[in-house]
Specification:
Rossmann fold; seven-stranded mixed sheet; 315 residues; alpha/beta; AB_hydrolase_fold; single chain; 2 domains; signal
């Protein structure tokens, strides 16, 4: 069995894990995982978990040791609450690796990263300020939207300070997230000349919910928002957004929401309800369903973004 994408591999891994086929899952990850180096940290984590599940604690710890040696780390919640690692708690080598991970987690919280791609010449240029999903990171955001530099946009990808692992960051504390993002937005303006009339706030998954809140509340004066597979606790209950939606009315804000046809992690009916609430309350918003896509970035992002930019009026 061979896989072209990490999503395809992860889907089969999830199915086998649910069926308690732990040995088969480990063998599959050993055979296919190296094809996806951008997900090496997660693959190492899954391999270690499977090794522990089939009664190979020394092998599980060795896999973790190799991951830590490569610079990866897993946060306190993952270390202590992963069911597969319960049997490893208290082992001297496991505890040594845990201590290294905890220190790296503290350092990540202190210094949240942001990656920026943009034209070399002086601007001003339009800005696409894009947030990663929960459990993801800003490097994947760059990969997801990198075609933007082909049309002379600044692409800024801030990374949350709420760190769960070396490649997994979350936006769970929304108040802290918004404060951080306002500061990072300011940092972009200090480095690049930004066109204030063409600022787009964007986000994938929980980053989509966060970007929408940032746009509606208005600490950053954006022209519009682009959300890909937006998800989160309040996306599931669109009526909770009514105060923020009504507050944003009259600010000339427009939005575009993209959802994968086969995205089963996102409640499609609730997304449609959200789009209706936005339109009914004076914030024009378009919904586009991407054929064949699951909860992921489409391969041809520029095609969808150009339609989004035309609708918002920043093309």
């Amino acid at each position: 069995m061979s896989f072209e994408t990490y999503d395809d591999l992860f889907e089969v891994v999830s199915e086998q894990y649910t069926a308690q086929k732990y040995r088969e899952t480990l063998d599959l990850l050993d055979a296919e995982g190296a094809k996806f180096p951008e997900h090496a940290s997660m693959i190492a984590y899954l391999r270690s978990c499977m090794a522990a599940r089939i009664g190979l604690p020394e092998h599980a710890i060795q896999i973790l040791s190799e991951a830590v040696a490569r610079g990866f780390w897993y946060g306190a919640e993952t270390i202590r609450q992963t069911p597969s690692w319960i049997s490893l708690q208290g082992d001297p080598e496991f505890e040594r690796l845990a201590a290294v991970c905890f220190q790296r987690q503290l350092e990540a919280v202190k210094d949240p990263k942001m990656y920026i791609l943009g034209p070399d010449e002086l601007g001003p240029y339009p800005l696409f300020f894009a947030l990663h999903g929960n459990g993801d990171n800003s490097m994947h955001t760059l990969y997801g939207w990198n075609n933007l530099i082909d049309i002379d946009w600044i692409l800024a990808a801030p990374q949350s300070a709420q760190a769960e692992s070396s490649d997994g960051y979350v936006w769970n504390n929304q108040s802290a997230a918004l404060r951080q993002l306002v500061q990072q937005f300011t940092d972009v303006g200090n480095e690049y000349q930004v066109d204030p009339e063409r600022i787009i706030l964007a986000g994938f998954s929980m980053g989509g919910e966060t970007a929408l809140r940032l746009a509606l509340i208005g600490p950053i004066e954006a022209r519009g928002f682009v959300l890909l597979g937006p998800g989160g606790p309040t996306i599931d209950d669109p009526e909770e957004w009514l105060p923020e939606i009504r507050e944003a009315k009259g600010r000339n804000l427009r939005g575009y929401i993209l959802v994968g046809e086969h995205d089963r992690t996102i409640p499609h009916d609730q997304i449609k309800r959200m789009v209706k609430l936005l339109n009914d309350n004076g914030i024009p918003c378009e919904l586009e369903i991407i054929p064949g896509l699951r909860h992921a970035y489409p391969s041809n992002t520029l095609e969808y973004l150009q339609r989004a930019f035309n609708f918002i009026g920043v093309a």
